[in-house]
Amino acid sequence: MRKCRVLALMHEGMVPPQDVRGHDILKADWKMEYDVITTLEEIGHEVHALGVGSDLGAIRKAMHEFEPHIVFNLLEDFDDVAVYDQNVVSYLELIRMPYTGCNPRGLMLARDKAISKQLLTYHRVAVPEFVVFKRGKSIKKPKRLAFPLIVKSLVLEGSAGISQASVVSDDERLEERVDFIHQTFETDAIAERYIEGRELYVGVIGNQRLQVFPVWELFFMKKGDEVLPIATGRVKWNSRYQKRHGIRTGEATDLPPAKQEAIQHLCKRIYRILGLSGYARLDLRLDPSGKIYVLEANPNPQIASGEDFAESADRAGLNYQALMQRIISLGRRWQPDRYR
User: Fold this and answer.
1) Is the pTM of this model over 0.70?
2) Are 148 and 211 in a shared domain?
3) What is the average pLDDT value for the chain, to the nearest integer?
4) Do 82 and 207 fall into the same domain?
């Protein structure tokens, strides 16, 4: 294994402290960044962590001073604008700097939930019916779209803006929730048919040759609980809420082998349709009839140790150190000019 100088790009507020004594790392906002940095160092790489705000010059300066072999991209936005992360990756490609994770075209296509659903529909992949509500436009549900609906930001990830109130059953609540997304997050909103069923996550890693990890599931263990089984912000990030409602994730062990194989094959198709590279997590719903719906694709997902992506990779035989090395190796092999 070749040792590398790795420039790790992350939000300026997510750079772990040099001395973590006195910090609860498991609850720290910067846990993923800390896990990645320390693990890369453990396997022999030299890592420089760079907090990025709104200045590309800081990246350019670090390139000149540190002379990295590769950039480990942990950015989720640039200048607090979510859709600008793809532009940072485009900049890295322009200066011929290898990087980890997804390419800019894949980021762009997957980021916009409407565009990705339209592409998947063209390829006859089942997605929930939806409508986009632009900011400043009237909020009127098309007749073809039936309640209940779930309302989300069109472009934000990490369950931003998703709560139990996101699932609406009448026009008044639809208007209220769309307005909430417009006003709070300053993005367009998407309202899609709420699919009853099981929430599944599938990790995929690779550029051309893909490895699909075991199917993971979001479990709501407390029967009779009135909480809808959706991945809200509290479901994902609030440990007390998870404990109170018996929420956990784990391998979907009761799926028949044929269904597991069908889901994994579908995820490879989705990955290629959207032009993804590096690694991604695909979010699906399995309805009571056994039909699979694609909710969204998440390139460059959360990769902290112990989170869904890393746990499913471990089940597939890639421990956390091996996963980090695989991500580095894929980044070094990615050649943008070969995949136009």
Assistant:
1) yes
2) no
3) 93
4) no
